[in-house]
Request: fold
Amino acid sequence: MAPSKDRQRKLARAKFDRQMARRAVRERRRRRILAGTGIGLAVVLVAVGAAWIGGAFDSDEKTTTEAADTCLWSPLIKSDNPDKTDVGTPPSKDLPTTGTETMTISTNQGAPITVGLDVASAPCAAASFTHLAGKKFFDNTDCHEILSIGAVHCGDPSGTNNGGPLYSFYDENSPVLPEPSPSASAAAKPAVLYPKGTVTLVGNPVGSNGSQFLIFFKDYAPTTDAPYSIAGKVTGGLDTLAKIGKITTVADDAGDKVKPSQKITIKTLTVGADAAATAAPSASAQS
Reply:
């Protein structure tokens, strides 16, 4: 699993290589025209050359560069996993890569939970949430686990840890464990990589993300690695999140004590303008 910066460098290199290849093709074509064209077309060639120097043909390169893929969605096969759902794939080009986007999660546990999706650091996660929210993928689904690390597990309509859309994408924004201090006389306290309110993706297998996500209701300091890619953080509804964190758990079908003793149902999950419209009535209703 390559870190976010490595992946960005690879994508940038791929863009550069495509630019160079297109530029070489144009240069070879121009030379053939110059070599095979008679003296009678000299005026035309001069005009074309002047236009080329002036940048008239740069628009093709610029358009192609701008249209390069921002995100790569890996297709999955339904027959390999019947718990997956075909809802198409998000767009791969012309996606936002700056700022934040608001995601609102309305549940049966209280006021809506609002999340600031980190578009700058995780543009593909934001694009995936936006696409799935537009398909109402999360609506009327249950958060099926409360984990001992202090997070509620949502986004799998099947409740099996195998559900999701028929595409996956790699981690973008995984935190890095700090280097241990060589002068420390005692074992240092693990760093909190996932503070309370952090929203992460959770893949099965790790690094292969889809629709499943975690919302941390307490700080989490992993000791060996950072297994989750961060998508954003909670900006509102912390009381609701705290209430969810206090729900007791019982054993699931596999015998693991992670199943909430009462339902945690996502009524709606919206992103962007729809999210603001969803949150507004709920906020006014509580006032």
Q: What stands out?
A: Residues 105 and 269 are 5 Å apart (CA to CA). Residues 4-36 form the longest helix (33 residues).
